[in-house]
Amino acid sequence: MNEPGWRIGVDIGGTFTDLVAEQGKTRFTTKLLTTHDAPARAVVDGVGRLMKQARIGPADIATIVHGTTLATNALIERRGARTALLTTEGFRDVLEIGTETRFDHYDLNIDKPEPLISRHLRIGVTERVAASGAILVPLDLDQVERIGRQLVDQGIESIAVAFLHAYTNASHEVAARERLHQAFPHLYISLSSEVSAEMREYERFSTTTMNAYLQPKVAGYLGSLKEQFTLIGITCPVYLMLSNGGLTDIETAISFPVRLVESGPAGGAILASHVAKECGISDVLSFDMGGTTAKICLFNGTSPVTVRDFEVARAYRFKKGSGLPVRIPVVEMVEIGAGGGSLAKANSMGVITVGPESAGSEPGPACYGRGGSHPTVTDSNVVVGRISPGSFAGGTMPLNVDLASRALDRYVAAAMDIDTVSAALGVIEMVDENMSNAAREHAAERGIEISGARTMIAFGGSAPLHAARLAEKLGIRRVIIPVDAGVASAVGFLRAAIGFEIIRSRTSPLEKLGENQIDQLFEEMTQTACSFVERGVTKDARLTIKRRAAMRYVGQRHEIMVALPDGSLDQAEITQLRLDFETAYERQFARTIPKLLVEVLSWSVSVEAEIPAAHLVPAPIEVAYGGASRTEMVVFPGSPEPISTLIVQRNALIPGSTVTGPAIVVENDTSTVVPDTFTLVVDGSLHLVLTRH
Description:
Helix content is 31%, strand content 28%.
């Protein structure tokens, strides 16, 4: 009889759905094309595959951890619920007006993203709360119910309630929800005071609207998924990955679906953090490249940088300010349309362009033989020999080199009057350059130097193919390819802790913190955050609590997060808090502003269940690899002629094995390219460590 305790991680991406089953040191993986019409189908099919591989039954599965692009795709494709907004009278156009800034000052024809809710469904209500929290105009509850009835008659499924200054006094929003639920119990209702209880009305309204827009769809998907699991006998707890890298239960995910928007990429960042601790290194950069996008994340030591605001559904994909703002805790990363399925072509000026459009899973790259006719990054890698057509996806999905070549000839080579291989190399070089430029710009914005001692941790189905070349462009000497890199985000889900973060705005000058009842605020926030975490852990689980403050110089628009000590804030700790703020400010902006007053805008409490510390594995003695291998002719950037390249199966490598490039290490879910400028060593955890000469 099989032992219980198997844990399964599931990551739904734009092209592939990745699954991992793990018990102790035993692990099985599988990868399926994402079924966009019914995402749960690929999940259930994949879980079935894993059970067959591991020879286990439904009762042996202890936990399923899930990350998904469902929320993101619903926002981008505008496939959410029919939603309305109730707001303070006179403020229904906040979603339209925004911050009145222009993301491109020189484009007179910019297209701002349309609000998720049409104007006729954004309705003002008689009520008013002051910035201090004082009630200026009482809420008209009878009016709320009349409006609710009109909206229900129009087929509204979900309502966002976002009143002015509700972050200081939520009583009107809570009362509106109670009246609506009494009259219309089937409605989904999102309150801004719960979804995003911070100042800045546009961002708060936008985030609450997204939450309401996603709630029915996410609730339906998760309910259907749980039902399908039950039909095949799986009744274990199912957890969802949040955008900040924590886990939560299904009920909390349904209440706050907007927190799932970046759940998939967060899993990769969690894995990179775990690998960094396991290898005893810090100052890392994670590089996640799948079938649709590439994500680059910077770390402070071994922890990914987190922020509280980002954008989705940008009208101009790479222009900040052209999307819908979301104000929730999130792992910060730069994302570009550069995945294995990104479409390539030569434009009218004879310049190769790659992405952001993607072939996705349907029809997929031309080499898949599923009807795709446009060349992609994957097609280019196949043509130059960096992907072996017979070993892709463990040999379960043979690739057609001729179809890839024809696509490159038609859309790239012919337009530029070059041969097929040169076209493929041009596509590969262009996508690598796009990613390196994005990484440099992202690091510069953060005041972080990428080159030097920083280590790149690369994962995803396409990242190991491009990591070494990207490292060369960025001046990075060391690259780590983790075990099962092709399904790394799903593995990362199994390394995450159950956690929840709450943020509340309460502005206070630094020198007056002791007068503003901050301790009482922290106590309320901690109790609320603990209640969410305790839903998914045992009673004896140890919880860790971290507190932070969002601080700025008085008069500035943006703030910096600073860690707070435990306990009450006395004068000595307040003095230290200013020093900590100035240290963080100088790290980002290379200067401080003497004698300028400092204020706190908002406060954060994050609670998570403790997870065991990563086990540090000693470095093995290096031994030249002498196992079974073969050689193939592969073309590398900078060398138009194919060269003899060692092809090694990853499962044949042992700790201490060394491989000198040029070489390609092949495994079921990806392939690692080792140029002649790198040497590969397998560490004690079986990670591949590439070091540039």
